[in-house]
From TrEMBL:
It comes from Sphingomonas lycopersici. This is uroporphyrinogen-III C-methyltransferase. PANTHER family: S-ADENOSYL-L-METHIONINE-DEPENDENT UROPORPHYRINOGEN III METHYLTRANSFERASE, CHLOROPLASTIC, SIROHEME SYNTHASE-RELATED. Pfam families: TP_methylase. Pathway: Cofactor biosynthesis; adenosylcobalamin biosynthesis; precorrin-2 from uroporphyrinogen III: step 1/1; Porphyrin-containing compound metabolism; siroheme biosynthesis; precorrin-2 from uroporphyrinogen III: step 1/1. Residues 12-221 form the Tetrapyrrole methylase domain. Its EC number is 2.1.1.107. Keywords: Cobalamin biosynthesis, Methyltransferase, Porphyrin biosynthesis, S-adenosyl-L-methionine, Transferase. GO terms for molecular function: uroporphyrin-III C-methyltransferase activity.
């Protein structure tokens, strides 16, 4: 089958991963798709320089989603994509990170296929990979971690999830969308057997100009997120590999301050 990036083809949907923030991490194939777009349906926090790759005549529609504040519900986004494609437009659905890692890309592909249409997916650098690299944090390492897992920190029934075995010696756990539930996440991991002194990092706005990388111990995760006023987007990394990163050690600083005040 011919590529959906055929410039002569009309009425198509291309799901594009925009990466974690830095426009330099956009793939060449993603840039090619944007240059052909008639309509760009994009997430929030997409760098304007990425949007500028689309033709000036292209319609740009923001469907930004933040915690408890959605521009459009997912079903409406699906319907919007399908409607523009049926009208003959080249629709680029531009998503932060990678479309298939906590990006609801699977749901959008299902919606397009259910309408009897075809869709292409162009992967992007995921938040976990981009943010970890920006913090010099290797998610795997021959001496420290031979496995890595990804979970959503805002999943339904968080306390009922079985996370045992996902974090610990020789394993790395990456938690997306976990800032608002950081304290509950720490409690859950410790209840599931992870040591309270396991290193943990919070990577805030990774690859953006104002990124921050903070590290502490698991037992201090919730308090650190609160006292450092960590904001989304951010990911949490749990595992021995955190010690290899350039993240700022916030536990040591807090302990020193507490000792001075005592």
């Amino acid at each position: 089958m011919a590529s959906l990036l055929d410039p002569d083809a009309r009425g198509r949907v291309i799901l594009v991963g925009a990466g974690p923030g830095d426009p330099g991490l956009l793939t060449l194939r993603a840039a090619e798709a944007l240059r052909q777009a008639d309509v760009v349906v994009h997430d929030g926090l997409i760098d304007p320089r990425v949007l500028d790759l689309a033709p000036a005549t292209a319609q740009r529609i923001s469907v930004a989603k933040r915690r408890a504040r959605h521009t459009l519900p997912q079903e409406a986004i699906n319907a919007l994509i399908v409607a523009h494609m049926k009208a003959g437009s080249v629709v680029v659905r531009l998503k932060g990170g990678d479309p298939f890692i906590f990006g609801r890309g699977g749901e959008e592909v299902e919606a397009v296929r259910a309408a009897g249409l075809t869709v292409e997916v162009i992967p992007g650098v995921s938040a976990a990979l981009g943010c970890a690299a920006a913090a010099m944090l290797p998610l795997t390492h021959r001496d420290h971690a031979s496995a890595v897992s990804f979970v959503a920190g805002q999943c339904k029934g968080l306390t009922e999830q079985d996370w045992s075995g996902l974090a610990g010696q020789g394993r790395t756990l990456v938690i997306y969308m976990g800032v608002a539930t950081a304290e509950q996440i720490a409690d859950k991991l410790m209840a599931d057997g992870v040591a309270p002194d396991m290193p943990v990092a919070v990577l805030e706005k990774g690859t953006f100009a104002d990124q921050r990388a903070l590290k502490t111990l698991l037992a201090d995760l919730g308090p650190m997120v609160a006292r450092e006023d960590v904001q989304s987007p951010a990911i949490i990394v749990v595992g021995e590999v955190v010690e290899l990163s350039d993240a700022d050690d916030k536990l040591a600083r807090w302990a020193k301050t507490a000792e001075t005040l005592a």
